[in-house]
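Re: the request from the purification team.
They wanted to know what the chain is likely to look like in 3D before they choose a buffer screen. I agreed to run a prediction and write the result into the notebook, where they can find it.
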Amino acid sequence: MIKILTDSASDIDIEEAKNLGIDFVPMKVQFGQEEFLDGVNLSHKEFFEKLIENNEFPKTSQINEFQFNEKFEELTKDGSQLLVITISSKLSGTYNSAVQAAKKFKGKVFVLDSLNVCIGERILVQYAIRLVKENKLSITEIYDELNNKKDKIQLMAVLDTLKYLRKGGRISAFTAFAGNLLSIKPVISVIKGEIKLVGKAIGSKKSNNLLNQLVEKCGGIDFSMPYGLVYSGLSDEYLQKYLADSEQLYKGHVKDMKSIPSYMIGSAIGTHVGPNAVGVAFYALNQESANDKK
């Protein structure tokens, strides 16, 4: 039997993991002296309530080797093999912790660096679930297939504010101040496992159009593979605006715009992007364009 384990940076929480038939390890989130387990006793909605109300910037911590060791023992004791998909090694030490723990479980535990996060990591997990359910490939063949396909994953998002990137030390206070004065909305992407600024526009409509142009640059969305949208904060208002501005991308591929899978961003990325961000993740149809972008 092949089992799948991921971390909460995929924005899959404990209940959804159970429904998907997989397991997960939560990251820790700290607001001042309060510590929570992401996706266990802190929902995505509760995270944003605290983020908006709290003056202290939250801290997230990587999953350590001991936590993985416990999970690996629990999930392999019945003789199962375990496929572990983690947040990008460029964004967290979680992958390295999993690799160290897996050394005691040779032939049983296989650790894959998603080189992604949030919904980009999620759609890799969803593809893994599909492959395991098909029951046609060995765990090493599934591992190789995921490793090959992960380079085609594109994750792009429009942020509403630069405030949280500044709080997290990602940009200077002056840049954030000037950007907010001009209502500049940055567009970010995960490139080779790291979060990069790939564009900026004034106003939500122009930034949504820029996001769509970047999607088209990759040759569009492979609708035969997992894909979806994400939003952050306590309202999906900006998600609805994006849907209204993006119908041409999805027309003819989906039943209607409401049927497009959408999820709320959790703490791993929510800490840095803040509320009212909107993102899209998909497997690019044009591998060459995807690689050029990277």
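For the purification team: The domain at 152-293 is CATH 3.30.1180.10 (Hypothetical Protein Tm841; Chain: A;domain 3).
Please add any questions underneath this entry.
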